[in-house]
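sorry to bug you again but im stuck and you know this stuff better than me. what follows is a protein written twice so to speak, once as letters and once as structure tokens for the fold. id like you to explain what the token line says about the fold, in plain words if possible. anything you notice is useful, everything is just below.
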Amino acid sequence: MVTGLERGTTLLERLACILPRLLSYAEMGEKGEAVP
């Protein structure tokens, strides 16, 4: 059974992986480049 802490940790790990991509996409969008 997954505890709330473990679930929260996995969510944080996912965010840590996703956030840099979102930030890079936002930067590319500001520069006028195509965002995948």
User: Anything to note?
Assistant: Residues 1-28 form one domain.
